[in-house]
Amino acid sequence: MVPIQRILAQCKKELAQFRRDRLTLALAFLLPTITLLIYGFALRLQSDSIPLIVQDFDRTSLSSSYIERLYATNQFVPVQWPEGVPSQDLIDGGVAKVAVIIPPQFSRAIEASRSIEVQVLIDATDVNNARIIKNNIQNVTNFFLIDQQLAPSTNTVKAQIRLWFNPGRLESLYFVPGIYGVVLWIYPSLLTAIAMAREKERGTILQVYASSITAAEFLLGKGLAYLLIAICEAFVAIVIASVVFQITLVGNFIILILGTLLFLINSVLFGLLLGARSSNQNSAVQGVTLIGFITSLLLSGFIYPLNNIPFPISLLPNLVPPRYYIHITRDVFVRGIGWSGIWFDLLMLAIFGLLLFNASYHVIKRMQLSD
Q1: Pairwise CA distance, residues 309 & 44, whole Å
Q2: Per the domain annotation, does 159 fall within a domain?
Q3: Strands 76-78 and 50-56
Q4: Is the residue at 157 inside a domain?
Q5: Cα–Cα distance between 233 and 260 in angstroms, integer?
Q6: DSSP secondary-structure letter at 157?
Q7: What pLDDT does residue 263 have?
Q8: 228 plus 278 within the same structural domain
Q9: Are residues 349 and 204 in the same domain?
Q10: What angle do CA 215, 203, 228 make, to 5 degrees?
Q11: Could you count the other beta carbons within 10 Å of the beta carbon of residue 303?
Q12: In this predicted structure, what is the pLDDT of residue 350?
């Protein structure tokens, strides 16, 4: 039998086993879909419906107009202020996240063109959210002054700001392309690692060693089967996300196909390597969870900017393939720069694929010789 026939025979065997296992079928398509929907709907960097309490000691039409402006942002929700309870106690108790205290002479000072201080207390447990709340209140205050014709009209410099790529500021447009990198890294590698570890756990790997198939042919046959499954997973994930979250393609379709194919090859080879190094299915799952999930979630730029990671940990993301694929998907679905912006990411995925195949080949080869 020629090598290509042995590879295809191994691929058909793997696909036949996959179709017979309903649990594996659910793991392949149901869990990625659930993960995609949970991340797509739940992940948000900016909080809404922030409980805000206002203590208005002025009680004039001007102070009421200022309060209306605060709630008109749709970011804050009013919290009833119990008489006699300090606003700080409400923040300490978690009843409110921010408190605005308007002093008694608010209107008189403004009408007399005197400066007046409005006290703002913000719960800074979440530092990023506190910074967003602070900026929003400052913007509302500036808009209120302009609307009431109270702001100085001698602004010599005025910034004309235009939001590029995502003018609607849709967070799903940022997160959903990143979810592809997490989902398509975890689940194809998990399926492949379990299948590889199952061969060792049940002893069927010995039949492979006793046959004439080589380590490279065995890896290519098994990898080809799970690559086809991974391609189906990618197609389902991208179609569902496009329909549910209204994510449309703005870049080169060929880049998406090529980048996804290279990334899925990396994912399958990563699973083969972990499965070959694991003694049973439990350890294979733990390996994918510990190495694959944590790195793809925290060290890929999916949620947190990579330039915020301190040295020397900042070197680790360079070894995480999802980092490069997420950059590709965000270019294809958000930026649309093209080949000039992502050629390096495609190159890195190709290099990682060669390294992972070489490592898996040597592991299988050593096992074959030792047995």
Answers
A1: 20
A2: no
A3: parallel
A4: no
A5: 11
A6: -
A7: 95
A8: yes
A9: yes
A10: 55
A11: 14
A12: 95
Confirm whether 153 is domain-assigned: no
Q: Which of 139, 107, 133, 106 is closest to 120 using CA atoms?
A: 133
CA distance 161 to 11: 55
Can you give the pTM of this predicted structure? 0.81
Pair 107, 69 in one domain: yes
In whole angstroms, how far apart are CA 44 and each of 23, 38, 63, 172, 304?
32, 11, 32, 8, 12
Instruction: Identify the CATH number of the domain in which residue 101 sits.
Output: 3.40.1710.10
Residue 353 has what pLDDT? Answer: 92
Domain count for the chain, please give it: 2
Burial of 370 (0-12, 13-18, 19+ CB in 10 A): exposed
Residue ranges for the chain with pLDDT beneath 70:
1-2, 45-46, 84, 148-158, 168, 203-212, 367-371
The residue assigned the tokens 């709340």 is: 133
Tokens standing for residue 11: 């691929």
Orientation of helix 171-202 relative to helix 3-20, angle to 10°: 100
Cα four-point dihedral sign 260, 265, 269, 271: positive
Give the helix ranges, DSSP H, for the chain.
3-20, 22-42, 61-71, 87-92, 106-111, 127-147, 171-202, 205-210, 215-244, 253-277, 281-287, 294-298, 321-330, 339-370
The domain containing residue 204 runs over which residues? 3-43+168-370
Same domain, 331 and 274: yes
Whether residue 163 lies inside any domain: the answer is: no
Rg of the chain, C-alpha, whole Å: 28
